[in-house]
Amino acid sequence: MQNVRYSAEISRAKEFIRENYADSAISLHRGAEKVGFSPNHFSTVFSQETGQTFVEYLTVVRIEAAKHLLTCGNSRMSDIAFDVGYQDSHYFSYLFKKHVGVSPREYRSRSEEG
Q1: Whole-angstrom Cα distance, residue 113 to residue 95?
Q2: DSSP state at residue 21
Q3: What is the rounded CA–CA span in Å between residue 95 and residue 81?
Q4: What would the 3-class secondary structure string for 70-96 be?
Q5: How far apart are CA 83 and CA 65, in angstroms?
Q6: Is residue 61 within 8 Å of residue 22, measured between CB atoms?
Q7: pTM, rounded to two decimals
Q8: What pLDDT was estimated at residue 4?
Q9: In the prediction, which pLDDT does 35 show?
Q10: Nearest CA among 89, 82, 84 for reference residue 58
Q11: In sequence order, which residues have a C-beta less than 8 Å from that of residue 108 and are 6 or more positions away?
């Protein structure tokens, strides 16, 4: 029953990600350090427990935050990218479209329509 064995650590790791996703320097190593695991062990346990890699989970959290910012304000795309932890707005747009199916601009305009 690994779920019980590591659930507290994974919960702490997820909380760490949710609280620090805007930091572009967040990393697997920092997540591992936060829960007291080696990076390799943390990577394995995180994937087994969540079904996602650390980076996949971080990306989902960042994209969800971006969706909120896109619908609740008029910030520039580059500012939103920076606010959710991406230094490169083109990379942010690429990831957003890959995960959501539309560009950030299109997502914003659709949300304004209705």
Answers
A1: 23
A2: T
A3: 11
A4: HHCCCCCHHHHHHHCCCCCHHHHHHHH
A5: 9
A6: no
A7: 0.92
A8: 66
A9: 95
A10: 84
A11: 70, 71
Query: Cβ neighbours of residue 76 under 8 Å, at least 6 residues apart?
Result: none
Burial 8-47 (b: 16+ CB within 10 A, else e): ebbeebbebbeebbeeeebebebbbebbebeeeebbebbe
43, 28 in Cβ contact below 8 A? yes
Q: Specify the pLDDT at position 1.
A: 41
Place of tokens 């760490």: 16
> pLDDT in tens for each of the 114 residues of the chain?
445 689 999 999 999 999 999 999 999 999 999 999 999 999 999 999 999 999 999 999 999 999 999 999 889 999 999 999 999 999 999 999 999 999 999 999 998 886
CB atoms within 10 A of CB 97: 15
What is the token pair recorded at 100? Answer: 């959501």
- The answer to whether the CB of 54 falls within 8 A of the CB of 43 is yes
What is the rounded radius of gyration, in angstroms, for the C-alpha atoms of the chain? 16
pLDDT at 73: 85
Both structure tokens of 8: 């507290």
Distance between CA atoms of 79 and 106, rounded to whole angstroms?
Answer: 17
